[in-house]
């Protein structure tokens, strides 16, 4: 039994400690979080635009052509696998992109990482649009009518009255979308990006052992998701307390 535990420790040592391989996991985790953050920003901005267009069209009958395009986009993106979207963006749309961004001797981003972030952002936008649309629908129509009665234009009513309330309603599911992105971005390894999902394969090629590299990566994913989920619960409690107040 003692020899068995010694063997396990040696395997863990090779997968995590030898040659400071723990730094590879941290680098991969950093890339994963960076991609998820950039994708969330892109997704939220575009999602609000798409949701706003559809909401205005539904309530006023305006922007029908843009609403049609928005609905087509949402349908196509939600109806196709993100891995195929990733391949299309990398091998067709941005095939000529090849650059690196460095600060001193530290590389902070390359074209593959940015393409991955853009792809996941465009994918997330379709889901965020539905989340925000539900937030818009939760705002009482009287709020929009009150804005119009005060002489505000449609855009002013959306900007100052509807969107702030809709975003407040949408914050918990939007945060949950970020948590989902952290996990989904694991497939960005197809582009050669060394995110947390790619690192176990890199370590295995040196140690010829998949067990501990995969377990370590899984534990790190789980830890990040648990922390973010805890933050989400705190956010939901604060919003619920504010509603009661």
The main sheet comes to: 2 strands, antiparallel
If strands are numbered along the chain, what order do they take across the biggest sheet?
A: 1-2
Give the DSSP E fraction (strand runs of 2 or more residues): under 5%
Secondary structure: number of strands: 2
Please estimate the helix content.
over 70%
Q: Termini distance?
A: 59 Å
Report the radius of gyration as a whole number of Å: 22 Å
Shape designation: elongated
Compressed to H and E, one letter per element, the order equals: HHHHEEHHHHH
Mean pLDDT across the residues is 87
Spans where pLDDT lies below 50 across 5 or more residues: none
Q: Structural class, from helix and strand content?
A: mainly alpha
Q: Helical stretch count?
A: 9
Brief summary of the model shown:
Helix content is 79%, strand content 4%.
Would you kindly provide a written description of the structure presented here, covering whatever features stand out?
The protein is mostly helical and 245 residues long. It contains nine helices and two strands, in the order ααααββααααα. The protein has helices spanning 2-17, 22-60, 64-78, 82-93, 111-138, 141-149, 154-184, 199-207, 211-244; strands spanning 100-103, 106-110. Helix 1 packs across helix 9, helix 2 (22-60) packs antiparallel against helix 7 (154-184) and helix 4 crosses helix 5 (111-138). The longest helix is centred in the first third of the chain and has 39 residues, at 22-60. The mean pLDDT is 87.
